[in-house]
């Protein structure tokens, strides 16, 4: 669920804010939603002690969950970290914590933009 929420948010951001043309949408979206980008973003959140204890537990469960799919174009460590970020996004979405989810998604955009 988290990957779908993030992907939809990023694509909306790209289309509305960056005025990206549809053929560049996918290329631009990869900067935000790739496993590598998500792992880096999670590290930034962790460095800034951004998450509550409850959220950290969700991230750890998502990161450590048994995966039945293989990581594409990345190592397992990076894939697991990205799964942790997707888990907290999915949790906040399903638990209808809209304000916290919006803040998290906005901060993800900010972190990726800062990295260039």
From TrEMBL:
Function, in words: Involved in correct processing of both the 5' and 3' ends of 23S rRNA precursor. Processes 30S rRNA precursor transcript even in absence of ribonuclease 3 (Rnc); Rnc processes 30S rRNA into smaller rRNA precursors.
Positions annotated as active site in the UniProt record: 3
Species annotation: Staphylococcus felis
The protein's name: Mini-ribonuclease 3
Subcellular location: Cytoplasm
Subcellular location, principal: cytoplasm
Stretches assigned to the RNase III domain: 1-96
Needed co-factor(s): Mg(2+)
InterPro entries from the UniProt entry: Mini3_fam, RNase_III_dom, RNase_III_sf
PANTHER family in UniProt: MINI-RIBONUCLEASE 3
SUPFAM superfamilies the record matches: RNase III domain-like
Family designation: Belongs to the MrnC RNase family.
Oligomer and partners: Homodimer.
One Pfam entry name: Ribonuclease_3
Top-level class of the enzyme under EC nomenclature: hydrolase
